[in-house]
Design goal:
- This protein is an alpha+beta fold and about 325 residues long.
- Helices cover about 45% and strands about 20% of the residues.
- The protein is built from twelve helices and twelve strands.
- A six-stranded antiparallel beta sheet has the order 6-3-8-1-12-11, covered by helices on one side. It has a four-stranded antiparallel beta sheet with strand order 2-7-4-5, covered by helices on one side. Strands 9-10 form a two-stranded antiparallel sheet.
- α2 packs antiparallel against α3 and α7 packs across α10.
- It is globular and about 55 Å long.
Length: about 325
């Protein structure tokens, strides 16, 4: 468990400095990565926490998580699908310099921020990226690069963004280092009786500063995060081992079976036993879990993506096909 929530390494596809997939999202614990991430909800609804604020996403909504920004996702509707695109900042640093950092403001579910009147162009670009990567028709790698640059160009031209400053970057790095230390402490000790008092003492912080710093950076309380780690570890043990439910309850730091069942049902909507049965069935079907993302069969997402592609594009494609 050590470091699991500390930092996520993104493996880029070979065709472009990015990762892209369609996922059914159950729960993604607070985490961050160097890439900035665009989350495009194709179906269902999600509760998202980013930069200490909570948002509700619905069909068609788009949110951008900036580089090294703590974010987490929880499903409101288990029948959801989202297109996830994670992009290496190097794509614009080649023009602005290796230390350049931009903070983009893109969240269609947020009513308070200045809004772009029409997001259809952005939806179309994102959908086309997904289509090219999943279909892999001849020349897809070139269309993919072109669309990725269109996406970055759209962000600079149509969204509000702030250039990063060196001092802000250094302060952010220090905060992440301190946050990493706290998270590693939780990950190492979640199976024990962790209290704010002993945590603050071990981390050389006061209880008030620990609580305030953690909530400010994570958007949830210290206790809520500890609870999510215990539940996440329980899920892994339920689907990855043959240990009894009692053993797992104790191994994850729950004081009794009753409290474990109550907390687990509240977090997942199922009992530990039911979750184990569902998990075993999922493993037999080859479902891949990454940070709470269930990577689904591309054909499922492919059926939704054309709904968001601008009609003018399909007409141009048809004219192009007619020439052959």
């Amino acid at each position: 468990m050590e470091g699991k929530y500390k930092f996520e390494m993104i493996e880029h596809i070979k065709e472009a400095p990015m990762q892209c997939f369609i996922a059914a999202i159950e729960h993604s614990s607070p985490h961050w990565h160097n890439e900035f991430e665009v989350l495009f909800l194709l179906k269902g609804s999600l509760k998202v926490t980013s930069e200490s604020k909570k948002y509700t996403m619905k069909n068609g909504d788009i949110i951008l998580f900036n580089s090294n920004t703590i974010h987490s996702i929880n499903c409101l509707d288990k029948d959801n699908l989202a297109l996830v695109i994670q992009i290496n900042p190097a794509i614009y640093q080649s023009d602005y310099g290796k230390t350049a950092h931009f903070h983009f403001h893109l969240n269609t579910s947020e009513t308070e921020q200045p809004q772009i009147t029409d997001y259809k162009q952005l939806q179309s670009i994102l959908a086309q990226i997904g289509m090219e990567l999943f279909l892999k028709n001849d020349g897809f790698q070139y269309y993919l690069k072109s669309l990725l640059y269109q996406l970055v160009g759209y962000l600079f031209r149509y969204t509000h963004y702030d250039p990063g400053h060196k001092a802000e970057s250094e302060r952010s790095n220090l905060d992440l280092e301190q946050l990493t230390t706290i998270i590693e402490y939780i990950n190492k000790n979640h199976q024990l009786k962790v209290t704010l008092n002993n945590a603050a003492h071990s981390l050389n912080m006061s209880i008030s500063s620990l609580c305030r710093f953690f909530r400010d950076k994570m958007g949830i309380s210290f206790a809520e995060y500890l609870h999510s780690v215990r539940i996440s570890h329980a899920k892994e043990l339920l689907t990855g081992t043959k240990h009894t439910v009692l053993h797992i309850s104790e191994a994850c730091g729950f004081m009794s079976m009753a409290s474990f069942y109550r907390a687990f049902r509240k977090a997942t909507g199922t009992t530990p036993t039911e979750y184990r049965e569902i998990g075993e069935a999922g493993q037999k079907r080859g479902i891949l879990q990454i940070q709470g993302y269930s990577i689904v069969n591309p054909i499922v997402g492919y059926e939704l993506l054309p709904n968001y592609i601008a009609k003018s594009n399909s007409k141009e494609d048809n004219r192009g096909s007619a020439k052959h």
